[in-house]
């Protein structure tokens, strides 16, 4: 595993210390920073995928025929849904 040295503003380090020490299982600074970086990378990856999806949809939106078919399929599924009767009582 590679080691790096980072500089943090005092207020950021204070927030890190407060968060990591306030847990039921105290994390080392390294573990805390590792988890934070992993979460950041995961969030950025999800944003990128969402942006790709939106771009793709805008470039090739569903047709009126596809939309109508989806509406009909959903109506059939919900019409035959046993929860529908349970919720009406």
UniProtKB/TrEMBL annotation:
Domain Ribbon-helix-helix protein CopG: 4-43
Tree of life domain: Eukaryota
InterPro entries registered for this protein in UniProt: Arc_rbn_hlx_hlx, CopG
Sequence intervals crossing the membrane: none
GO biological process: regulation of DNA-templated transcription
Protein name: Ribbon-helix-helix protein CopG domain-containing protein
Species in which this protein is naturally found: Geodia barretti (Barrett's horny sponge)
Lineage: Eukaryota, Metazoa, Porifera, Demospongiae, Heteroscleromorpha
């Amino acid at each position: 595993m590679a080691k790096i040295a980072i500089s943090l503003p005092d207020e950021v380090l204070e927030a890190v210390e407060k968060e990591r020490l306030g847990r039921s299982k105290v994390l080392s600074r390294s573990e805390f920073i590792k988890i934070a970086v992993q979460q950041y990378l995961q969030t950025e990856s999800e944003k990128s995928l969402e942006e790709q999806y939106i771009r793709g949809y805008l470039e090739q939106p569903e047709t009126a025929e596809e939309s109508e078919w989806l509406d009909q399929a959903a109506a059939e599924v919900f019409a035959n849904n046993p929860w529908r009767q349970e919720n009406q009582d």
